[in-house]
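ERR on first pass: missing label on line 2. Operator R.T. fixed the label and resubmitted. Corrected input:
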Amino acid sequence: MQEKFEQREREMEARFDKKTAAQDAEIAALKKQLAGTATNPPVPPAPSVTATASTNTVTPDQFKDLSDKVDQVAEAQKKTLMSEFNPSIGLVGETIFSGNSKGSDQTGSDRPGGFDVWQRSIELNVAASVDPFAKGYAVINASADSATGDTTLSVEEAAIQTTSLPWNLELKAGLFFGEFGRLAYIHDHELPFVNRPLVLDQYIGGESKTAGAQVSWLLPTAHYVNLTAGFGDQFGDIPNNPGTYRSLSEVNYFGRLSTYFDLTPNWQLETGISGLINPNSGEGLGGVLVQPNGVSTLTEKARRLAGFDVKLSYVPLQNNQFQSFTWGTEVLYSDNRYLSDPNGIPSSGDEFYENVGSAGLYSYITYKWSRQWSAGFLFDWVQSDQNNSEVTAAYSPYITLALSHWNQLRLQYTHTEPNAATGYQPSDAVYLQWTWIIGSHSHGWQQR
Amino acid sequence: MKSKLFRFLSLAAIAAITLGARPANAAKIHVVTTLTDLADFARNIGGDHVEVRSLATGIEDTHGVPMKPSFVPLLNRADLIVLVGFDCEHSFLPGLLEASRNPGIQKGKPGYVDCSEGITPLEVPKSTDHSEGDVHPGGNPHYLLDPVLAKTAIQNIYNALVAIAPQYQADFEHNRDAYLARLDAKIAAWETEAVPLKGAKIVSYHNHWAYFVKRFGMEYFGTIELKPGIDPTPRHIEELITEMKAEHVSIVVREPQFPEKVPALIAQQTGATLVKLPIMPGGVPHTDTYIEMMDYIVHTMVAAIK
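pass 2 clean. output:
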């Protein structure tokens, strides 16, 4: 069998070489013929000449048509530009204009109240194949500081991802957004609304950034089921501080199991469950946290998070570019372990460990009624993961105008309602988000 | 402990290989095509040796086929992915191939069948700048609406099937020749029927018809879209109506995946005939095969100018 395949391969290679040589010869002959007819233009056949006698002459129209075709083919064969080795490069810009009725000391926001302009993303995306076995990509983001306006450059993602592992496996390693839930690993400017849901901000710490590795397994079944598991030295914007030595129990472990259903040709349901555990947070996420009373402190000692996500979509096959509907919801439960120090004096004897169980969710609907226009509503509700008596809810209607695939405006109003325990005030804010893309763009799997 | 772990990993590996592998006696070649015309060609050439599935059903915009996770297991098991090429499928195929975990059908591999090979494209853009809209760097990808160029796609599919299953070459060759004979007869009939279309000017919603109008001697006057993928502005509609009236454009084509309102308005204001034409088999009722689709298109175009 092996010999037979090798022989077949040799025969095919020989046939291919022969065909290429024949085509090259044909092109050379055609060029020679064109050169000849250019100095001796063809004479149109005399009216009395029969059809068979005129088969060797070329009319001016036929000559032009032939010449055009040869030029196109020759031109197409010339392309071996050095720039073809460049990776695909794209840049995303995102500016948010906002007005907030309360100052940041009253809302807990890291942006000032009143009028604000925030260049949240200047995001450079670079991607290319590394070799036949893997591709690499990087996302480098610059964001403006709220106080100084200075732009801080950071690498959001830089990872290698395999493309040809057996057994339906895929491995990603480096700095990346770990797969957890639906929106945790989506970049800010790609969210269906302006701001990241409160529960993702508080329980994950923004995007699910991690430095580690993640393996994904597409189950070998006719029904789509995907299992992802990974580990990393952090999970979220704030890194763990391991001190001088990081044991395996101080690593973050995360995973997600997801599946999908075609309810009808036009209705789709995607759902998943996710988990995150950091058995030992070391010096704690963000270190020793001084509480609002200014005295007591809280240090995270273990982190546990579970989530359930569901997305129901109406994507009519015939005109999904002009009409669609999405309902997405995520519910998260946090069960972190803290070292509580009521008098704020370390090792004074009053410290104690406590588990804080907290829940939060977001739920949104978006309806699109034309290629350009869509509108929706986002509901947020979250208990603080440090003190579950502190509860915040938010209500955000939004409307989006997609001027084109690469140019989008979004207007959003948000009413935030923290309870008294949080120590913050209810506030109203209006946001105008302008997002644009230049350069290469690709519709990757996460953008579905 | 170690031996238990080793035993578990071995069992998991065996299960994965067994569940994932095709049985040695599997008779059918699993072919997945992006669009329905390619599926029709693959079925006609492959006959009983192929099992063909199309990601599109026929009614979608070729640039708007959704990236459904249910396509992933299909592609995971595919022996061949057959596509139009020239970036026609850029909005959904790269993401699906990434998720498929099937190394054999990735770009550049034998299972990746780009039917545009051998086609000289029309309208290769001088610039891929986004100011020109959602342009295709490789040229206009809608060459399958020219039945003569469709024969190149058929040959590419034939070549791929022979490469993957040389033991069935005789059957593939017989099927291909029989189908091409039918298609050639229909092409001759369409060219005769379409004689009245020579010189007729058309406007369509999207630039789908460049190859069709060239084949049948028509003139492509313009598109309702401002640029590819960009909806028309009121000013563009106004200018288009003025120009169409001056140049006596006789046909306005609306592809089924675009809204009717603006094409109907333009047709009404210019006196042109509004026609709804599919861009792939299944786009309108009774066009389930490529030949039925082309029959419908030619008949409808000719009727529109009478």
